[in-house]
Specification:
Length: 621
Amino acid sequence: MASALACGTFAVGTAASAAPTAQVIWSSEKNPGNGSWFSGPSSIPYTLSQQANIALTSPTSTSATTLAVDPSVQYQTMLGIGTSLEESTIYNLSRMSQAKRTEALKKLLDPSTGAGINLLRITLGTSDFTARQFYTYDDRPAGQTDPNLTYFSIQKDIDYNIISTIKQALAVNPNLKIFASPWSPPAWMKDNGSLIGGKLLTQYIPNLAVYYRKAIQAYQAQGIPIYALTVQNEPLYTAPDYPSASVSPAQSKQLILALKNELNANGLSTRIWAFDHNFDSAWSYVPTILDDAASNAAVDGVAFHDYAGEPSIMTEVRNAYPNKNILMTERAVWGTAGADRMAQYFRNWAAGYNSWVTMLDSNIQPEKWTGTPGPTMLIQSASSYDTYWALPEYYLIAQYSKYVKAGAKRISSGYGSSGTVTNVSFLNPDNTVVSVVINQTAASQRFKLSTDGWELLATLPAKTVGTYLWTRETGPTPQNLLTDPGFENGNLASWNSEWHNVALAHKVDTDTVYTGNYKLTHYWSAAYQQLTGQTKSVANGTYRASVWARSSGGQRALRLYAKNHGGAEVTAEIGSGAVTGWTQYTINNLQVTTGTIEVGVYSDANAQNWAAFDQFELVKQ
């Protein structure tokens, strides 16, 4: 997803304005991931517990972990935060009385009285979490096929209360977005003739595309719009004892193209999300799909699971394909470490997060997975179906889902550290700043949020997540005083300060830009020095300069600079280490007394070191 320009949308506040006041909500962990939760409920220290409001103040000299929050620097737009309504959860909900089922759904989905979950994952046919015999929508006796899909039907989804439960969920929260994932094509489309394991037969790709289109239409006929579809859950894994299928990258590309044609021909707007598997396998799979122009155009986003590899892979994929949404579609997490893992997902461009499996019972049922599941966010008593209890994980996900609204932008914020506090922050469409702060340590942690000239000083208890919300004052958009700051003219004509030693080692190109269509690159095959800058006439006053940068690393020096403004040259050091994801470097409080300033970047590099720059900014503070 393309980022907002670094100049932002709102003005930088000043301490002369009325001080904002932040709401404070806490939830804490207890025995995270421990199977003892299946035995019954237990008291939890904080459960979406409202604390006293905190007034933001002018900056202080108090010693505390400082997290800079800058709402003017914006990243991905949030689609939603949620969980799954797979058949295990629906089976348990169906055993409840209507009143209790409504209560549980409101607890999950209601934006006012519940967790405000607004993104749900469902399965097309059964997964490993089901009480039923495995099925798809076109199962045939062994040896028979149905290429015309004559026997296609979602009747089992109706019989098993899947349709009625999803309808009830939509009644509780009409703004829900629902996406679907299949665990296996019908067995007759696979080389082993079974729902368990096996490979998709390429000859049936056109039939499978029609199958998915018919499923989307069948759900739509029931009043359930399917927002997006992943074409195969975990296509690189063939499970030994539950529905799964091997779908190669080349097959996935063909399937995506065939499905897009089906959607277009039938007036369906369902989006297609590619991959839907672990971080560590992304680079072996995604390029086959997204390096092809036709299949790239058919794909809205790339979906990930977190069972191998690190979330930073999402940033790598986003940087390579900046016009694609990034989604974290499956991973249950526990405790404050899990809340921090969620922060890492969002800090690595995930526009959505979905937990996996919402409610098992106290016998850890129903499920047909290969291992023993961890505790779910809601657990039902196996002997008294209307009795259920919420785990800390329900409250911890709600620290995000209840307050970060669809359409929110993730904004620039300091991450902190696991030894103090960590953070991710957002700006809601109503101009509310939401900062989620996580304390994984065994002691209370003092910290401060520094934002728009204000400071929020707070203490967060051990093993607790705090959500801090305040309304940001609006104002005129700060003007970026640089000409062609993102090189969208396709040249360097406006960049009038240049110096090099051995060779002209800068150019404007289109490879892996931060935003727009062009960027600046420093590179030469031999050791080189290169300066690229812009001199501007400006009114005397205080300014901020910034640039987004990536680099190979290895340079002797690499920096953003500001000079010729009436004082000593000031720099923001990018340094000699590799910068693998686009990162903003900023110089604050530049005092201009001469009516001019030069802003630019400088490389002192070894042979074949490269650095890339985009979206320079110079604004008056």
